[in-house]
Amino acid sequence: MKLQYFASCPRGLESILSDELESLGAVEIKIVDGGVKFESTTEIMYRANLTSRIATRILCRVANGNYKTEDDLYNAALNVKWANLFNVSHGIKVSTTGVKCPLKSLDFMTLRIKDAVCDQFRSQVNARPNVEIRDPDIRIHLYLEADYFDLYIDTSGQPLYQRGFRKSSVEAPIRENLAAGILALSGWKPGDTLLDPMCGSGTFLIEAAMIALNKAPGLKRNFGFEHWKDFDSVLFKNIKSEYQAQIKPLVFSHIYGSDEDLRAIRVTKGNLEEAGLKTAVELSRKSFNDIVAPAKEGVLITNPPYGVRIGEDEDLARAYPLWASTMKQKLSGWRTYFLTSDLRMPKLMRLSPSKKTPLYNGALDCRLFEIKMVAGSNRT
């Protein structure tokens, strides 16, 4: 039996997520702002949670329709047989988001949906689930448009960009699914040389190493659907074993990372060790301007310091031309990609980007600048 789902993702990566889901066998795929709607079997939903490098959450729709008042939404939630989905002993959390929603308070609507779930449990089992804000077993999401709603139960639990092995991070780390999406947008493939000269917590390096070794990102974590009544533990175990068997032997994968901050190198090393990927990546401590091209051709991808992370605008204005000079001298023949919210970057570098892809790093409106390095200036 196929159910209807919504997979959310960082804005700008919807088409890549759509391709992922299609490759798994999802059908009726529709790209919307911030994600992808689709239909699939339970097995495909399990596979999507285990293997998607791009999705943030995968939500299963349990109710939808038109509404005018808070009571319409309460009654819709009351009609869902929640006790058939999960046990009353599981803690719940309800969240509400709205776009052009006419209701006065989304927080009040969240409380109303929580009441409906608890009232439905009382009518069925004469007990109600507890609310758990920090670490709920069951997450319920209400999405409101001007006169239409979708009510979902979360299949993923913790966000899917939490791969289950990041021990620590430096300031303002990039999320794993955004990093994986940028790798896809760059055209980097396993076997290509990859360099991140400002690696921070090592997110690009880890995501690339997992792709190179064909390691599914969700193998070391748990999921929300494991708390559902119809959870098929045998099927899920078999699927995990299948993906575990597909992991390639751990070898150096022509992935290089560096940073001038010794703490960043230590954090990256620890995260690589925790992920079981230390051998796949070569790390070194050096500044951007001291990098040495590890191959004649390759792909440089980085999320450089910007805004609060580096300090004043004057510091950036001085740094960019030096980075550009280093790239011209040492990276001729390379494709370079910079994710930044500082839209002055190419101009101050005096380099012309061949692509400018709008992306969001959390709430930050960013651009992924593609700059192809040739001898001399890139300015057209």
What key phrases describe this protein's structure?
2 domains, alpha/beta, seven-stranded mixed sheet, 32% helix, 10 helices, 380 residues, Rossmann fold
* Counted beta strands: 14
Helix segment tally: 10
| Helix content estimate | 25-40%
Which residue ranges are poorly predicted, with pLDDT under 50 across at least 5 consecutive positions? Answer: none
The CATH architecture assignment of the largest domain turns out to be 3-Layer(aba) Sandwich
Tell me the overall shape: globular
> How are the strands of the largest sheet arranged?
2-3-1-4-7-6-5
Q: Terminal Cα separation, in Å?
A: 56 Å
CATH fold-level label of the largest domain = Rossmann fold
Helices and strands, in order, run as: EHEEHEHEHEEHEHHEHEEHEHEE
Number of domains: 2
Q: Looking at this structure, what is the CATH superfamily of the largest domain?
A: Vaccinia Virus protein VP39
| Percent of residues in β-strands | 15-25%
Look at the structure and give the CATH class of the largest domain. Answer: Alpha Beta
Mean of pLDDT = 94
Main beta-sheet strand count, sense and barrel state: 7 strands, mixed
Task: Please identify the structural class as seen in this structure.
Answer: alpha/beta
Structural summary, described in words:
With 380 residues, the chain is of the alpha/beta class. It folds into two domains: 3-154, VC0802-like (2-Layer Sandwich), CATH 3.30.2130; 176-214 and 224-372, Rossmann fold, CATH 3.40.50.150. The protein is 32% helix and 23% strand. The protein is built from ten helices and 14 strands. Strands 2-3-1-4-7-6-5 form a seven-stranded mixed sheet. α5 packs across α6 (203-212). The longest helix is centred in the first third of the chain and has 20 residues, at 106-125. The chain is globular.
